[in-house]
């Protein structure tokens, strides 16, 4: 298994890391720099433990993991173009046009909503850029499990006026589906364990939420 920790353009990675940390500083806790660091760690783990690592460019994996939320439509800043933001940034830091194009393509392919709309397109993109499977799995793994539970309530509390019950619906609408959308074997294995944690949480939630009905509240002595 190939390591991803070998030196690969450390100067570019350092510059991008510093940029992303500053860029994400105003994001809510569900999509902050800590999220980026976890996704990066997961991407490295998946890349290292997935066969045929030589087919993937470790620099593309690292940069895409770092930049995958830059230009996210939920946080896009006025005047920013999500279709070219990552590409232009990398070129400005001295990356080749080929590298910048690959990372931009991977970042645009990570989106869950885009895959739901056109899953065939994502499969074609993975054929062209196998790094996408790694980064996409890493990002989705951070959306589930105990971290995912925390991120759901952090996001809805910061960005919407959804009730806790509406937040719970998000698990059924999206998060419980992610296990079946993993592209790598490592991703599937990790997703299975994290999905079980969410199911256990939802069972506890159901038991406790049952007391919101007047008939379910025991009378006080």
From TrEMBL:
InterPro entries: HD/PDEase_dom (IPR003607), HD_domain (IPR006674). CDD domains: HDc. Residues 28-153 form the HD/PDEase domain. It comes from the Eukaryota. Signal peptide: none annotated. PANTHER family: HD_PDEASE DOMAIN-CONTAINING PROTEIN, SUPERFAMILY HYDROLASE, PUTATIVE (AFU_ORTHOLOGUE AFUA_1G03035)-RELATED. This is HD/PDEase domain-containing protein. The lineage of its organism: Eukaryota, Fungi, Dikarya, Ascomycota, Pezizomycotina.
């Amino acid at each position: 298994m190939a390591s991803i920790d070998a030196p690969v353009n450390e100067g570019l990675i350092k510059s991008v890391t510093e940029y992303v940390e500053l860029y994400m500083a105003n994001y809510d806790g569900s999509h902050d720099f800590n999220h980026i660091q976890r996704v990066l760690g997961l991407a490295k783990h998946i890349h290292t433990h997935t066969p045929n690592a030589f087919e993937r460019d470790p620099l593309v994996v690292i940069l895409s993991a770092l930049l995958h939320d830059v230009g996210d439509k939920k946080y896009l800043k006025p005047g920013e173009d999500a279709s070219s933001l990552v590409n232009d940034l990398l070129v400005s830091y001295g990356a080749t046009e080929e590298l910048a194009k690959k990372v931009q393509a991977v970042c645009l392919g990570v989106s869950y909503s885009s895959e739901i709309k056109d899953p065939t397109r994502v499969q074609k993109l993975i054929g062209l850029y196998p790094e996408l499977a790694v980064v996409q799995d890493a990002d989705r793994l951070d959306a589930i499990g105990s971290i995912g539970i925390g991120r759901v309530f952090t996001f809805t509390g910061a960005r919407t006026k959804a009730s806790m019950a509406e937040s719970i619906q998000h698990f059924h609408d999206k998060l419980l589906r992610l296990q079946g959308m993993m592209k790598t074997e490592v991703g599937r294995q990790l997703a299975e364990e994290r999905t079980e944690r969410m199911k256990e949480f939802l069972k506890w939630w159901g038991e406790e939420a049952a007391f919101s009905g007047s008939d379910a509240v025991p009378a006080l002595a």
